[in-house]
């Protein structure tokens, strides 16, 4: 079980916004206008986060049933193939045995006619004669028979008996394999019925959730507004306390060295160390932090942007990208470079334990690159332009915090080299999470050996035992000492947090990590390269554990996601805008005509593509499918399990996929070739798996990717 932070709202109820106070002159931010928060959350059935957690649990349960059915189906297919092969071999052997027996009969008949003694008894003679009883005319050329009988009678008898014995053995083997195949088929059929029932249950559960989605989405927006207001009120309170000390915030240069502070100011310490760039003053027994005037101005400017809409790479004044908000906050004191990766080398990094309001927080990893930036506040929060929320917001500092930078300290004392950004970094920009991640079919092994575990607490289950309110991994109860394996190749980092006891974290590159917790033994070392299936430790019950089990997590860009679809398919859809696959409220989608809807950026690109298509062919794009709810994905899977994606993994569920018709649904037509040539410039791609000769040929299926201009 995992105790830790997770990006997203963490309100159990709304607190009262602090009363208005007198604010000093240097406190001049004006946050964007927001509607008053709701008095409480008790007037709605479930919050958006609760809905998403419930959806994840339903999806994990369905994936578990599907995995069992898929494995059984594979076993049944393998058993059927083995049975057919054995039956074919047995049939061939039976034909060979019959031929050897027929030859022996001919020799026996010839010997009898010639009066040559035979080594066979009467019963064996009758057995040998049975195949040729009606074909004695085959016996001819007595002289040839005379010369052959002496040397071949005994050896032919032995060959015939051996062939008969082998035929019986192979027939018994074929019968046994047929029994196994029939039993496997029956098991697969039974599990198929269970999957059908699970599908019906999941569909009903999703229908129930869909009714609450728009209400919960609106509530979530109100809760975010309340969180923004609460953070601003806390900042105002601090500024008022600072004003009461009669200390005028000094310039950044004055506070740079804690050992050379002006009279009346003392170093601010954290964990026994003085914090550079900040000071403290004690008035009437109360210690108040003193920040530089430049830092206070930066935080004020950051608050003035809260609520402004998000825009890719936007720098204002109407929209802001993730770096755009940070750049505006720190101007005119300094102008940040135009890429997050370029910010890191230019400003002094400080220990994360010393983080202070105004600091630049850069998120990412060594294998992924730097993907997000925010302005630090107290209480583990920051102000950042967040793509998933669609605006500049106050949000929790995510787990993938890479470094803390303090602009007022100037350039770094030692060189700071930013990790190289990968091609997948774009998918994790600005607080968003990639909607899908393909790890390659068959490239994942399960973390525990077959038959050595049970499937326990699923991802997304809610409960007070987890700090986030939900379970962030998938549990596999197993005996202490059971081998734990890496699911795929990567680089190891061994950690020992209190919640996990012994934890192995494997970085697989491009923002993908897996975690293995509560281990009784760790068999790998920091920095070690491991392969899929390699032993990395053993099951235990260390840390915050309710019993022997493996707590297994998959993280993308630092966010925990449902591991079961990964284990089931080798790929998974993971999240967008805080919503689950197939559970995006209608208010977050945009219409493209004929009742079809897509994610709004995909919809805008689709409409431009459709206009170009109409200009070329004089008619509209023919479309049969667009956004697909989780319930409709389940329904399709029920009807076409061999063709449909596992529910919760389809890009239709993110509103970024369409199925087209009107000629595009056939390879090599004029319409299809036009799409292949022109659609990518509008961000629409034909995935490799759907190409002619791909894993599943679907000329009609197109997905929204990254436009070439981005």
Automatic annotation (TrEMBL):
Pfam families membership: NLPC_P60, Peptidase_M23, VanY
Q: Which organism is it from?
A: Kribbella shirazensis
**One biological process GO term for this chain?**
proteolysis
Which parts of the chain are coiled coil?
Answer: 41-89
Any signal peptide, and if so, which residues?
A: 1-27
| Protein name per Swiss-Prot or TrEMBL | NlpC/P60 domain-containing protein
Q: Does the keyword Isomerase apply?
A: no
The molecular function terms of the Gene Ontology recorded here are:
cysteine-type peptidase activity; metalloendopeptidase activity
Q: Where is the NlpC/P60 domain?
A: 292-421
Query: Per the similarity annotation, which family is this?
Result: Belongs to the peptidase C40 family.
Ordered alphabetically, the record's keywords are: Coiled coil, Hydrolase, Protease, Signal, Thiol protease
Task: State whether keyword Protease applies.
Answer: yes
């Amino acid at each position: 079980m995992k105790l830790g932070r997770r990006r997203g709202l963490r309100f159990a109820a709304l607190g009262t916004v602090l009363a208005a106070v007198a604010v000093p002159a240097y406190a001049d931010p004006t946050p964007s206008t927001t509607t008053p928060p709701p008095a409480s959350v008790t007037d709605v059935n479930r919050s958006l986060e609760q809905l998403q957690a419930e959806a994840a649990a339903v999806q994990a349960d369905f994936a578990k049933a599907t995995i069992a059915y898929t494995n059984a189906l594979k076993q049944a297919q393998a058993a059927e193939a083995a049975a057919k092969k054995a039956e074919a071999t047995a049939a061939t052997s039976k034909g060979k045995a019959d031929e050897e027996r027929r030859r022996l009969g001919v020799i026996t008949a010839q010997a009898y006619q010639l009066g040559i003694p035979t080594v066979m008894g009467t019963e064996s003679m009758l057995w040998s004669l049975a195949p040729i009883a009606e074909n004695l005319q085959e016996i001819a050329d007595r002289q040839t028979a005379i010369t052959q009988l002496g040397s071949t009678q005994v050896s032919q008898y032995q060959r015939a008996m051996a062939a008969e014995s082998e035929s019986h053995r192979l027939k018994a083997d074929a019968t046994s394999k047929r029994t196994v195949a029939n039993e496997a088929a029956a098991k697969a059929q039974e599990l198929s019925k269970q999957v059908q029932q699970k599908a019906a249950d999941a569909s009903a559960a999703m229908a129930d959730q869909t009714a609450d989605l728009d209400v919960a989405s609106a509530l979530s927006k109100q809760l975010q507004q309340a969180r923004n207001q609460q953070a601003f009120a806390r900042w105002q309170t601090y500024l008022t306390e600072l004003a009461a000390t009669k200390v005028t915030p000094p310039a950044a240069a004055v506070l740079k060295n804690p050992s050379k502070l002006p009279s009346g100011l003392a170093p601010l310490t954290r964990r026994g160390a003085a914090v550079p760039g900040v000071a403290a003053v004690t008035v009437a027994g109360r210690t108040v932090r003193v920040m530089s005037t430049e830092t206070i101005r930066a935080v004020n400017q950051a608050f003035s942007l809260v609520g402004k809409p998000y825009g890719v790479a936007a720098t204002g004044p109407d929209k802001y990208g993730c770096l755009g908000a940070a750049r505006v906050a720190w101007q005119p004191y300094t102008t940040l470079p135009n890429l997050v990766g370029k910010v890191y080398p230019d400003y002094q990094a400080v220990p994360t334990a010393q983080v202070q309001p105004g600091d630049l927080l850069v998120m990412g990893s060594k294998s992924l690159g730097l993907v997000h930036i925010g302005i630090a506040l107290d209480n583990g929060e920051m102000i950042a332009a967040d793509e998933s929320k669609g605006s500049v917001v106050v949000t929790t500092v995510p787990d993938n915090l890479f470094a803390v930078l303090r602009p007022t300290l100037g350039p770094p004392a030692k060189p700071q080299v930013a990790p190289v950004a990968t091609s997948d970094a774009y998918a994790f920009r600005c607080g968003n999470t990639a909607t899908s991640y393909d790890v390659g079919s068959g490239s994942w092994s399960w973390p525990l050996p077959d038959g050595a575990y049970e499937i326990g607490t699923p991802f997304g289950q809610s409960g007070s035992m987890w700090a986030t309110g939900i379970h962030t991994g998938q549990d596999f109860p197993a005996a202490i000492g059971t081998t734990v394996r890496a699911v795929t190749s990567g680089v190891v980092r061994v950690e020992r947090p209190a919640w996990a006891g012994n934890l192995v974290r494997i970085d697989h590159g491009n923002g993908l990590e897996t975690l293995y917790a509560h281990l009784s033994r760790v068999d790998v070392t920091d920095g070690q390269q491991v392969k899929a299936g390699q032993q990395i430790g053993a099951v235990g019950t260390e840390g915050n554990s309710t019993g022997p089990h493996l707590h297994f997590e998959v993280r993308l860009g630092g966010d925990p996601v449902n591991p079961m679809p990964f284990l089931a398919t080798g790929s998974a859809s993971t999240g967008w805008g805080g919503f689950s696959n197939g559970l995006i409220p209608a208010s977050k989608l945009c219409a493209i005509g004929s009742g079809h809807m897509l994610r709004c950026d995909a919809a805008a690109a689709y409409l431009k593509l459709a206009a170009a298509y109409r200009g070329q062919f004089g008619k509209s794009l023919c479309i049969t499918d667009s956004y697909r709810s989780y319930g409709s994905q389940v329904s399709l899977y029920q009807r076409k399990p061999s063709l449909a994606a596992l529910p919760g993994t389809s890009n239709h569920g993110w509103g970024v996929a369409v199925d087209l018709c009107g000629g595009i649904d056939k390879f090599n037509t004029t319409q299809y070739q036009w799409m292949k040539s022109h659609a990518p410039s509008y961000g629409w791609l034909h995935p490799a798996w759907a190409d002619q000769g791909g894993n599943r040929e679907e000329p009609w299926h197109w997905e929204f990717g990254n436009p070439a201009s981005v």
